[in-house]
Amino acid sequence: MCGIFAYVGDKPAVQSLIEGIKKLEYRGYDSVGISTIENKDKIVIHKVVGNTKKLKAKLSNETLKGNIGIAHTRWATHGKISEANAHPHISQNSDVVISHNGIIENYLQLKQELLNANFIFKSETDSEIISHLISKYLNEGSSLESSIYKLTQQIQGASSIVGFSIKDPETLFALKIGNSGGLLVSNSEKFSLVSSDTIPLSGNTNKFIALENGDIALIKKNKISISNNKKNISPVYHHLTNKKEKISKFSFNYFMEKEIYDQSETSLYSLKDRVNFENSTIRFHELEKHIKKLQKINRIILIGMGSSFNACMVGAKYFESITKISSIAENSSEFLYSEKMISKNDLIIAITQSGETAETIRCIEKSKEHGCFTISIVEQEISQASRISDACIPLNCGQELSVAATKTFTSSLIVLYILSLFFSSEFHNLPRKDIESLITNLNQLPRLIGEIIQNQPLYKKISEKISSSNHLLYLGRDNMLPIASEGALKMKEISYLHAESYPAGEMKHGVNALIGPSMPTIMLAPSGKLHSKMINSINEILSRDGEVIALISEEDKLIPTLIDKYLVLPNLDEYLNPILFSIPLQLIAFHTSIIKNLNPDRPRNLAKTVTVE
């Protein structure tokens, strides 16, 4: 969840630290801090509650010349949001300082042992244990590398840790235990960097090392040495493509706003080099060498969390309807600890935009242990998920910086849809003419997304209406039910309104008790086989003095006779309509957030990348 950045080189570290950690604020923004060694003999720490801008202001009167340093931006897990709990954390002897991402599961036991040994704690965090333990081992005579190794044998749970010691003032250390988010190391002749993500590395290097479970790295300005289980290993370098877009809002006030508008373009990127509209064919070069294995599957299990899980639910409907293969969606946190029977004939498709979601990563590992073929769908191509999966399919929609998913959600749906068409084509599960018809409809998708986005006055008007509500109900059926869930999630995430989604058919089984003037209902009611059922639900709500706001298809002549608040959307087909219907829900949530004077890019208590359970 947190962001870590570190520098060691031949220049003062402070500027690089501030620039690097600012680019990682999407991972957590409760507090931020940096630490450097000054005069080669003193560890100095500066931290604030708030963001990098506030830290930079605090440092404006400081002169920091140390050429080694670490920075951290926090998403609180242990201990309240405070300056004392902000990272970095220093040892009692002031000889070791660390930044940490993860959770130490046995921290209460370890903390009590240290308290019994007269160690004094200055924070409520589990992380402070790390600096105390490394310092303890160093002062007992162990080398820096041995002290770190001893630490790995003591703490339980997934952790990524970066720090340095006054006893070796030219060396950063970095270690990774389990799946606790990325920890990337790069070096050149004049400096080395450590980062939680590739974004701060871009422009500074063209290659990096991704630390794996058990790796301990000792990093000097022009040298990196890595060991695992006391054995030196040769690092594997990954190359940065430098294709990432400039981190800028351009003319927009918020990243979320920009990313919603981007979707007309990013939908093209998700289709590019995969869909050939001239001959109506689909190609995934990532899967070409695996076709024989894929032909043996008899069930598809899609796993994800949050917006990715909502995409999984739509994807399961795609695969089952189009490929005729039994398909289910599972929440990663539930799948991980369930006793669900899985076998080598199951295909596991894991969706994780960051490629680091803790439970999803562990689900991939669990599935591989059972012999399942695994595919990860990610935006971050060089990630933990991509490295451990049998195949990786990138979304190609570009880095998403707002916490709430928008373009990564729609791109996930597009990739899942064309993947189901690809499977059906390869496995001959659908008549060729049907596949050609569905591919033809895809060609219209980017244009229609662009047209939907332009209806801003309508979305603002609806947002003004619902912004004074305390509760919202989202109803859908079939492919639209997961979109209702996604709409409710967006509203909760960025507007802090209590919003729930239900199958429209569930109304009589409890949900009707909530209906009334104080709980507006957003109804997803496209034309199609279930349209008459949705009309029944609308009438049911109206008869109980409820208010309905409906998203309907352009040819619908019935629903406008029942209600006066509705949005008219294009009607492509039952598979692509969920993508089109998700766009207005994103915009309604966005404008509601703005009306309530909230920051949609940085909702409270949330972070973009969830690397701990």
Any descriptors?
3 domains; eight-stranded antiparallel beta sheet; Rossmann fold; seven-stranded antiparallel beta sheet; 613 residues; alpha/beta
Spatial strand order of the main sheet? 3-2-4-1-10-9-11-15
Supply the number of structural domains.
3
Query: What's the main sheet like?
Result: 8 strands, antiparallel
| Poorly predicted runs | none
Describe what you observe in this structure.
It contains 19 helices and 27 strands. Strand 16 (275-276) and strand 17 (281-282) form a beta hairpin. The strands form five sheets. Strands 3-2-4-1-10-9-11-15 form an eight-stranded antiparallel sheet, with helices on one face. A seven-stranded antiparallel sheet has the order 5-6-7-8-12-13-14. It has 613 residues and is of the alpha/beta class.
Give a short synopsis of this structure.
The chain is of the alpha/beta class. It is built from 19 helices and 27 strands. The strands form five sheets. It has an eight-stranded antiparallel sheet, with helices on one face. A seven-stranded antiparallel sheet has the order 5-6-7-8-12-13-14. Strands 19-18-20-21-22 form a five-stranded parallel sheet, sandwiched between helices.
